[in-house]
Amino acid sequence: MTNAAQGALTRRDMTKDTPITAIPELTIVVPTYNERDNVRPLVALLADALHGIRWEVVFVDDDSPDGTAAEVASVGQEDGRVRVLHRIGRRGLAGACIEGMLSAISPVVAVIDADLQHDERILPAMFDKFRDPGTDLVIGTRNAEGGSAGSGLSPLRKWGSDMATGLARRFLRITATDPMSGFFMVRRASFNQIVTGLQTDGFKILADMLSASGGRWGVEEVGYTFRERQHGESKMDAAVTLEFLGLVVARMTGGLLPIRFILFGMVGVSGIFVQLLFVRLGLAADLAFGWAQVAGVFAAMTTNFFLNNALTYRDRALRGWGVLRGLLSFYAVCAIGAVMNVGVAEAVYSAVPQWALASTAGAIVGALWNFVASSFATWRAR
Ligand code: GDD
Ligand code: MN
């Protein structure tokens, strides 16, 4: 661009475009994955609910195949308060919310689902609570006065959600009534203080924020009734509950172990049971012990591979022929891990002849190797 053209652009911007009063005081972050048909209705509802507040909305889309990002862009052509943050090659609800909040310059940010399940009409009441400088966070809650889970959750989901809430209260010392909520508003400056410690892999960003704040935040709640999803389908399943268990353990280790490693470890433990089961079956079928053990090890590696693919790495799960290639590379990784396991155990044993110590050391090194090597060789981030 020539200097003259640049000058012309600047001059035009300064004379008539974007009045300074358009600076938002509230940014609404909406994580999306395949929510195209919900974009327009949600923006209309927000516009209705937020009269008298200078707001903007940022949709954080993980390259949804249904074209959600393009839909947001087209709505944004008609309404300057609407923008899109389009992420390529990445998946994950918590990470999407975090990036959306970081992209905001307003002093207060909210997160709300795209599917109209959260009641946007309580946003002004939530925003009002920030008049009190002691308020850091306001949760839209289904469990407090005036709130209810309504008909938005199946009985099984309701039970899972209650379980998770109980766990969070017990182990993360969280006192809020609905730490699993995906609907909340936070002071941008408070968020900045904890953001570097947050887990980007998970689904339960609010529970993680509450835990990271260490009970020092002023937390308020506003009740609402959970509605039924309008278009598209839920991305939550049993894996999310396990992922949440991973978050609890991650927090209990002071954030030392990432959720992914904990999930990998949980899968590994399940593999021990699979191995024992297959050795038992092999022996029952009159196999020699050595062969029964081989069958057990292969069975365990195989179930470990599929469970990790469905749970630990579900955001980059292998499909089609990639499954076969991944399985073979996982066998190779585990074979090297087994050799390292034995090598380390022997080395430790020759230095300190205590079998339990030596064997555990071997197992830890083998497990770490399997985790790190398979994250590169089998489930490399694209
Ligand atoms: N960017 C992005 N990336 N967005 C995602 C992803 C992802 O990987 N997965 C889900 N989303 C978006 C969905 O498009 C939706 O807008 C929102 O996150 C919530 O996903 P749902 O699939 O609708 O979840 P839910 O209704 O089962 O559960 C939600 O509501 C519960 C009650 O408040 C979640 O917010 C839960 O965390 C919450 O407990
Ligand atoms: Mn939903």
Which properties best describe this structure?
382 residues, alpha/beta, Spore Coat Polysaccharide Biosynthesis Protein SpsA, Chain A, 2 domains, seven-stranded mixed β-sheet, 7 strands, elongated, binds guanosine-5'-diphosphate-alpha-D-mannose, binds manganese (II) ion
Blueprint of the fold:
Layout (H helix, E strand, L loop, with lengths): L2 H13 L10 E7 L3 H14 L5 E7 L6 H11 L3 E5 L6 H10 L5 E4 L11 H6 L8 E5 L13 H17 L12 E4 H7 L10 H8 L6 E5 L14 H15 L6 H26 L4 H24 L8 H31 L3 H23 L5
Parallel strand pairs: 1-2, 1-4, 2-3, 5-7
Antiparallel strand pairs: 4-6, 5-6
Helix pairs in contact: 2-3, 6-9, 9-10, 10-11, 11-12, 12-13
Bound molecules: guanosine-5'-diphosphate-alpha-D-mannose and manganese (II) ion.
Manganese (II) ion binds next to loops.
Précis, in short:
This protein is α/β, with parallel strands linked by helices and 382 residues long. The protein is built from 13 helices and 7 strands.
